[in-house]
Amino acid sequence: MKETVAIIGGGGRESALVHAYAKSPHVNKIIAIPGNDFMQQTTDKIVQTFPTISTTDIPSIMQICDENHAGLVDIAQDAAVEAGVSNVLQRKGISVIGPTKQAGQLEWDKAWSRNFMQNNAISHPSFQICQTPKQGYEYLAQQPEQGWVIKANGLAEGKGVIITENSAQALRAIEEMKRFGKAGEQFLIEQLLVGEEFSTYAISDGNSWKLIGSAQDHKRVNNFDIGLNTGGMGCSTPPLILTPELIKQVQTQIIAKTFEGMQKIGRPYTGILYLGGMVIHQQTTDQPFVIEFNARWGDPEAQIIVPSLINDFFELGLAVAKGELHTIKLSTDQKSRVVVAGTSRGYPEDYSQVRGKEIFGLKEAQQMEGVTVYGAGVKRSEDRYYADGGRLFYIVGEGITVIEAREKAYEAMSLISIEGNNLHYRTDIGWRDVERLRHK
Questions:
Q1: Is 353 found in the same domain as 290?
Q2: Cβ atoms 124, 76 nearer than 8 A
Q3: Residue 369 has what pLDDT?
Q4: Residue 231: its pLDDT value, please?
Q5: For the purposes of burial, counting CB atoms within 10 Å of the CB of 212, is it exposed (0-12), middle (13-18) or buried (19 or more)?
Q6: Positive/negative CA dihedral, 9, 10, 16, 17
Q7: 266-295 pLDDT per residue, tens
Q8: What's the maximum distance between 2 C-alpha atoms anywhere in the chain?
């Protein structure tokens, strides 16, 4: 029997999931809530989107899943996790991949998450939880002059983190928390760690878990990590900073402790766990620290890690939903991949002037060998595509090394433009590992 899969979310991450599920012979239709207009371009199977439905509109999601007889629902978006979509679907007997609201608190409540790490001896930066700006000011006044990270406690679309170099900047960043609304009413002041970032992904069915892969994200808007934090301008895999010894440490000292800790407090974790980490050099050794957890795939990391999995994605998702992950042997294709985000000029601030401008070259880029194009903020009218957001699309290049993968991604990106010269993207994605390979 052919199945329908529902994916909750609408960006590049969800586009990668559509592509992966569509490869399964068990799947004949995919519904994406809300989805985007470019999802259909990666498969001949039916992809139905619901652009007017929010990822937190539980009654509408339930109705759509019921009417389409969804055999599996993949919750890929953070607000849907916080809203408890998984809880409701599970109570209705629907197979779900995605944590409950309670387990997802690892992401949507940063103060709770830091306390969890502290209680389970998981390496993390020192932190202070603040309920008011005044508490933040008083705390900083008692601390030595150094760099700080100011974080909105709630979900802020990946943009609620402000990195500062000194206390004066930190004080201004506390004021900035107001622009995140409810998410910034409570905030954290954290020690600024100096090291190299990475992200690692594990999948769990609540009892057993498996490591999937790792990547290195590039979050700042401009080359060489300059400018505002965007949540992701591109990334590469595998990250060469993660040696076999460090991967072992990540598994035993962070991932295993996290899943075991969640079991102990009665919140078994089901779905994808994202570890946003940093490698810190301490005297003669390197140690991984947790910067943050996400309770779902990262974006744009999913666009390069999901395609690396050889497994039938429907079979994998069903095994997670049914608590049978131990029956699956994960396999990857061992390729290097680089993804570059194409954004509207002005992103992540004011890009309103770009909305409605035509995007050229997406189809031509998609026809290149070793290249995949995933949509996000793209609108389709007849056979033409228009900008409808900040992060618009993602170009994925694959190869034997990061150098080859990056060349393909940027060759494809060179075919694309936005009316009025309104396309922005970083030209240095993967630069750290390219430098490592060139200086071997």
A1: no
A2: no
A3: 97
A4: 80
A5: buried
A6: positive
A7: 999 999 999 999 999 877 889 999 999 999
A8: 65
Parallel/antiparallel/unpaired status of strands 285-294 and 417-418:
unpaired
What is the torsion angle, in degrees rounded to the nearest 10, for the CA atoms of residue 394, residue 85, residue 58 and residue 199?
-20
Residue 320 is part of a domain; what is its CATH number?
A: 3.30.470.20
428 and 388 within one domain = yes
**What pLDDT does residue 159 have?**
81
Q: Residue 281 is inside which H or E element, if any?
A: strand 270-282
Instruction: Decide if 71 contacts 93 (C-beta within 8 A).
Output: no
Measured distance CA(300)–CA(431) in Å, rounded: 16
Instruction: Quote the domain boundaries for residue 366.
Output: 336-438
Residue 64, C-beta contacts closer than 8 angstroms, at least 6 positions apart: 6, 31, 33, 50, 53, 70
Please identify, among 276, 292, 327, the residue that sits at the C-terminal boundary of a domain.
327
Give per-residue pLDDT as tens, 250-265. Answer: 999 999 999 999 999 9
Question: Does residue 290 sit in the same domain as residue 391?
Answer: no
Mean pLDDT score of the chain:
96
| Per-residue pLDDT, 228 | 87
Mark whether 58 and 82 lie in a shared domain.
Answer: yes
**pLDDT attached to residue 298:** 92
d(C-alpha 122, C-alpha 111), whole Å = 14
Please tell me whether residues 185 and 223 are part of one structural domain.
Answer: no
Q: What's the pTM? A: 0.95
Residues of the chain with pLDDT under 50: none
Of 309, 327, 345, the residue that ends a domain is: 327
* 224 class by beta-carbon count within 10 Å (0-12 exposed, 13-18 middle, 19+ buried): exposed
In-domain check, residue 118: no
Same domain, 158 and 227: no
Residues 145 and 164 in one domain: yes
Sign of CA dihedral 412, 413, 414, 420: positive
As separate numbers, helices (DSSP H) first and strands (DSSP E) second, the chain gives 15, 24
Q: What's the confidence (pLDDT) of residue 440?
A: 72
Asked if 159 and 207 sit in the same domain, the reply is no
Q: Map tokens 């993207």 to a residue.
A: 425
